Every structure is written in structure tokens, then in C-alpha cells.
Amino acid sequence: MKFVITGGAGFIGSHLAEYLISQSHSVEIIDNLHNANEESLKNLKDKIQFHKADILDFDILKKILKNSDGVFHHASLISVQESLQKPEEYYQVNVKGSENIFKLGLEFGFKIVFASSAAVYGNTSKLLIKEDSKKNSLNQYAETKIQAENIAQNYINSGAKIIGLRYFNVYGKGQSKEYAGVIMKFMERISNRQPPIIFGDGSQTRDFVSVEDVVKANLKAMLSDVDSGFFNIGSSNAVSIHELAKIMIKASGLSLEPVFSNSLEGEIKDSQADITLALKKLNWKPETKLENWINQAIHEISN
């Protein structure tokens, strides 16, 4: 099948491109290289068609997308802290850009699988977060994701085929230093024999899911009989940031102690996905074990 990935030069998008090609699909990529570069696609350059384009350019989007079998929409601005400083830019890209994709999906009939976020839930009192949990934005980034989901639902109501995947904390190789999650930031410091820095007291929890599992969820969603809906994509395991630091330090064999710093504005307290719906409807479940991945990754860095 012929698929288009927006944001395909980014962290998840480039992994998705590689996976789709391994499954014998044809891949085109749209990326404006705002927070990515073509280096992430160097091993795929002869196997993909690359368009340096912006999702805010509706006319160019239309030309590229009109003959696709499906679109994986991953073009997005993703920094919580940056969103507080650039709210209008985040609104334009994450909301208006997404609406362009949804509009074309309705017009041409292709299915869309798009990257949403667990950030839509904010802080919740429930131990396991289900898809019907109340939405609560704690920052501008989360607000744009909620708005994009609301627009998606409007297009679904009009007959569009759109699936939103609410990613929890995605980790893996290839994250840029500027936008890396906590695991890769800890990894970088430990590889330089420096202690990891924890913002806050470290009791905050996160649900970590590997990028390999995330890209498989994307393809399962695209090829499923499910036309629309929103699904949690996580591991269903909560790990405190302090515990994460201890696991990574232990794997390194170094004598380090985490350094604690002030909490970051707009960050959630706890996060743990209930992934029952994705298992039931998409036949997806994560396969990568966090501690195994950490041990292997740190071993590779050490050697």
C-alpha cells in the first residue's frame, strides 16, 4: 500500500517509515525539517519519496495526499516548555495543520492515523487512565492536542476515517537532544559519567513505551477494521522518575547519585495507561520491556 507520513523525518516518523518499508509498503514523507533533519532518513533515501513541505500549505498537501491509501500524521510541535513561550505557533501547526490533513482525508477518503498525546488527560485522580477519562490541559501543548482531537471528532462525525493514538512517554534511539524524553536525557548524562538531573522530587510517575511498539500500533490501527476512535498507547506500567534514575545508574555500574532541581512548569504528576481498548480493538500490546531495553542500550554505549 502507498502511505504518506507527515513529520516523517522526526523521531517516531522515521522509525515508522523504516517499519513500513520492512513490511513492503510504499512510503512518501512530508517534513519541513523544523525540528528534524534528513540525516534520520539516510538509510532510507533510495526507498522513500521525500517532500520538504509544510502541513500549513494546503495546496501542496492536496497534491501529495490525494492518491495515498492512508496518512500517518506525525507533524507536530512537541515541547511542553516551548509551547508556553510560543502558543500561537503551536496552535497553527498542531491544530490548523492537523485540520488540513483531516479535511483532505474526508475529501479523498483515505484513512488517517494521527499522533495525539496522553497530555490531553492532564492530572487525573484515577490510577489507570482510560480513553473516556476527562480531558484537562495543563499547558499549551496539551491544549493544542485536545483541540486537534475535537476537530478530528467533528470530521469523524462527517464520515472521515480518523484514529488518534494517545502516546504516553515514547522512548528509543534517534530522539533529538532538544526534544528528547527523560530516558534519553538521563542516558546522555550517564554516558558522560554525569549524574541524571531530576526535576521535582522524583516521585512523579510516567508510563514508558518503546518507539518500536508505537510504530507497530500505527500500522495495526491503519490496517484494522476500526474506522475511527482514540486509543491509549503505553505500557500500562508506571515508573517513578527517581526509580528510573536508579535503574539506569545500576545498569551503568557507575557510582552516581541523581541531582534534584526545581519542578518544571506545566508538567503532570502521574501517568499510567489503561491499554485494554487498544488490545481489544486493534489487537496491539507492547512487547519491549523497559529495563531490558535500558540494560542493552547502556551496554552498547559502554562498548
Shape: globular
The main sheet orders its strands as 3-2-1-4-5-6-11
**Strand portion:** 15-25%
Low-pLDDT sequence parts: none
According to CATH, what is the class of the largest domain?
Alpha Beta
- Main β-sheet description: 7 strands, parallel
By DSSP (H or I, 4+ residues per run), the number of helices equals 10
What number is the mean pLDDT? Answer: 95
Return the structural class.
alpha/beta
CATH architecture of the largest domain: 3-Layer(aba) Sandwich
Portion in helices: 25-40%
Termini, distance in Å? Answer: 40 Å
Q: Compute the gyration radius: what is it?
A: 19 Å
Q: Could you give the count of β-strands? A: 13
Quaternary structure: single chain
What is the number of domains? 2
Return the string of H and E elements. EHEEHEHHEHEEHEEEHEEHEHH
Provide the CATH topology of the largest domain. Rossmann fold
CATH superfamily of the largest domain: NAD(P)-binding Rossmann-like Domain
